[in-house]
Specification:
disordered C terminus; 26 strands
Length: 443
């Protein structure tokens, strides 16, 4: 797969910088350009230094005049993640760095470029500014080059960034994305489905995307503005005015109890529940199992990154696997859910999905033999508490506790981790739960 991707990128690079067998080469032209701006492989780069970053960074501000005036304009953009400072004009502070990262696509950078079809953005891009690709009517795809070792850093897609990119049909938004601003993808008629990991979706973000059928909201707490999915306006000649129906006729997919479900119910849109189908959910240590050790890792991440405000101890993939409640972080509730999953499925032997645990549809059958577990010994254990499973009214229940989850001592304290108990020495108690899938129809 990696080799296929490399070949595709190499091919795109040739397409982007080759015309009639004449290859464009890297350059460092600064004469007549705005301050701190230089040319690099047919695009303008600006060196920016601000209070929010520890070192200067680069903003892509658009194609060079030569590239735009060429008989064969670039159909593709493949941007580097960083550029050696040797290609740059003198700039205070750059001399101590060997290279500077490319972190932003500037405002209006590629606006109304009708030749552009494919864009590859490096994992270092943190923001796509307003109107960056507006009116690129032939743009087909945007890809964020990332992997487990170098996940995308994209946080913001600004207002009108892809406005009226009418043919855009292939874009996979990275999980790092936090905010999609107003009309960012409005009138993108080529979009048929979109998966949105952002915490905030502003008004008109996907308005008038006439072919958009499925929207997947990948967080449970995403803030969605009422007019985010406005879809069409109907003229009533008898009233001599425009009556705005602004309905989304596709399907919104989200988690049970999420803001996505609230949005769909309030605006009478079709809604389907998302399922936790990721086979690696809950497995933080990479042993293909969900165990006490995974709950310990989740708790350590919480005490280190959240309580103590330190640097994350987990990789990108571990954080993804450990974020069970899909709130964008690995926290106490995730540690509780992982432990509950272990107790229910492994100790009690009762198959239960993540949805069952999240939404309270769990039945634990008592195992035929008492459960014994080895003691877990570690250093001081910060505490996290989970709720005990409700007891049945049938008979007194003897229980065997699952091992206490402990982690290395942290500078701050966290709540104590108690576990869900599995019933022993009683007849199996089963409860049948019917899961109803609700589909709300617009109209």
């Amino acid at each position: 797969m990696k080799y296929t991707k490399m070949i595709a990128l190499a091919s795109a690079l040739c397409t982007a910088f080759t015309c009639s067998n004449a290859a464009f080469t890297a350059s460092c032209v600064t004469e007549g350009l705005p301050e701190n701006t230089f040319e690099y492989e047919n695009v303008y780069m600006q060196i920016v230094s601000d209070q929010h970053s520890s070192k200067p960074h680069l903003v892509v501000t658009g194609f060079t005049k030569e590239a735009l005036q060429s008989d064969c304009q670039s159909e593709s953009i493949l941007l580097p993640s960083e550029i050696d400072t040797g290609f740059m004009p003198p700039f205070e502070g750059t001399e101590e760095y060997g290279a500077l990262p490319v972190t932003e696509i500037g405002a209006n950078a590629f606006r109304f470029n009708k030749a552009l079809e494919h864009v590859w953005l490096p994992y270092t891009i943190e923001k796509i500014n307003n109107n960056a690709f507006e009116g690129c009517i032939n743009l087909l795809s945007v890809e964020f080059n990332e992997d487990d070792n170098e996940p995308s850093k994209l946080k913001v897609i600004d207002d009108f960034a892809f406005y009226k990119c009418e043919k855009l049909s292939n874009i996979i938004l990275p999980e790092s994305l936090q905010q999609i601003n107003g009309a960012a993808f409005a009138f993108c008629n080529g979009l048929k489905q979109i998966k949105v990991p952002a915490e905030f979706i502003d008004g008109d973000a996907f308005a008038f995307c006439s072919n958009l059928e499925d929207v997947y909201i990948l967080r449970g707490n995403t803030r969605i503005y009422p007019n985010t999915f406005y879809n069409d306006a109907i003229s009533n000649p008898q009233l001599h005015e425009i009556i705005e129906h602004y309905l989304f006729y596709g399907t919104i997919h989200g988690y049970r109890g999420s803001t996505a479900q609230e949005y769909a119910e309030e605006y009478k849109c079709n809604f389907e529940y998302l399922s936790y189908l990721d086979k690696d959910a809950g497995d933080l240590d990479g042993d293909s199992k969900v165990t006490v050790a995974d709950a310990q890792l989740a708790l350590r991440e919480y005490t280190t990154a959240t309580v103590a405000g330190g640097k994350s101890t987990l990789t990108f993939q571990q954080r993804k696997n450990g974020d069970i409640n899909r709130d964008g972080a690995v926290g106490v509730e995730d540690a509780q859910l992982i432990l509950k999953y272990y107790v229910t499925n492994t100790l009690a032997g009762t198959p239960a999905s993540w949805e069952d645990l999240l939404y309270g549809k769990v039945t634990i059958d008592a195992p035929e033999k008492p459960v014994t577990t080895p003691a877990v010994t570690t250093t001081t254990a910060p505490a996290v508490t989970t709720s005990t499973m409700p007891a049945t009214s049938a008979a007194p229940v003897q229980t065997t506790s699952a091992p206490a989850v402990t982690t290395a001592a942290a500078a701050t304290t966290a709540p104590a981790l108690t576990t869900v108990t599995a019933a022993t020495s009683v007849p199996p108690v089963t409860t049948t739960t019917t899961v109803v899938t609700v589909r709300l129809h617009c109209g």
